[in-house]
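Consortium newsletter contribution from the modelling node. Members have asked for a concrete example of what our holo predictions look like. Here is one, prepared for the flavin-adenine dinucleotide complex that several groups have been discussing at recent meetings.
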Amino acid sequence: MAQTLKTDLLIAGGGLAGGLIALALRARRPDVTLTIVEAGEALGGNHIWSFFDSDIAETERGLIAPLICHHWDGNEVRFPGHARSLHGAYNSIESGRFNQVVRAALPAEAIVTGRIKALDAQSATLSDGTRIEAGGVIDARGVGDFAMLELGWQKFLGQLLRLEAPHGLTRPVIMDAAVDQGDGYRFVYLLPFGPNAVFVEDTYYSTTSDLDADELRDRIARYAAEQGWTIATIEREEQAALPIAMGGNFDALWPVRDRVPRVGMAAGLFQPMTGYSLPDAVRTAALIADLPDLSSRALQHALRPYARKAWEQRGFYRLLARMLFRAADPPARYRLLERFYRLDEGLIGRFYAGRSTWTDKARILIGKPPVPLRRALGAIREDR
Ligand SMILES: Cc1cc2nc3c(=O)[nH]c(=O)nc-3n(C[C@H](O)[C@H](O)[C@H](O)COP(=O)(O)OP(=O)(O)OC[C@H]3O[C@@H](n4cnc5c(N)ncnc54)[C@H](O)[C@@H]3O)c2cc1C
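And here is the predicted structure:
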């Protein structure tokens, strides 16, 4: 007979957002019994998540510190017209470490492997019939139905290459855009994990979500050859199409009648222009761990207005995304980022953290756009 379990807090989805909430609660509210339900074998799936030091508030560093596998004191970018070294410190988390740290923080029975078939504000039913009842439920199941949003895609395939000889890189290359441009802004992203190990990701912004993995594997092999690198082995691979939000209505994404509190991508908590959600996931986990009441009602009361406000404050990034996709033809789209990367470092840091000030926004937009003015203005006007 199918069993029924009871818990204080049920976290549906053991990915980035769900796992961070579990860690934050274990640290600050060890009295709360929680259960994470994850469909996959490993918490966090197969990801390398990266972020700048400036994405995370000082008070929230402790939460993320045990997860960091690689840290660098700076980074660089390369464009056809200029290259630049930046001071922004950068970090990467490998999902293997994430799985290990979250599991070590929780009692074994707090992690249930299974697929949720039905979820409401008080319970989950899994596909094997198990029912879990909870005082509070959080939907952390990641990207859901985003059909109501106006989207473009950031598509990539990354491989961790072990090379025959040292590559000579000392810091990440966030964008090497001095490469052939395809059907949208394209760049290669490089993370030096060791003297002979480099994670190479071929990335491009595209209007469709389909990804030709073999084509991207070929591009990585060609890029490595152009650098003079000989590949000994390919140690891991990941791929994704991240949603880039150009427009859309928050109430359609998370209707008022949907009473299940949400976090992470499911709540629209991501930087619309990069598709990255780690800074938001850290902030949300800290916010939840500070809530006195973890019932679904109280969580909904805190989380929906929080996510709505973040969505509304990010109209500027959706506007930039529209410009990136629409204000120029694909081969010229890199110019927007090339120009952006001539601005000051503090502004660049606040952009990635999703915390641009009014002055930053003005400085990003002011001046002759590096793309045709009429098309730039057309793209600006289209928000809905
Ligand atoms: C390959 C890749 C690399 C990325 N790199 C970065 C990065 O460097 N920096 C950054 O900030 N962002 C990055 N992102 C974007 C974003 O931050 C991640 O997608 C992040 O993992 C989203 O967190 P989440 O918790 O909302 O969703 P997820 O991490 O996707 O977690 C959702 C979890 O819910 C589980 N689930 C879904 N449905 C069910 C169900 N019915 N029953 C049970 N479990 C279920 C899934 O298996 C999954 O583990 C990356 C995304 C990808 C795909």
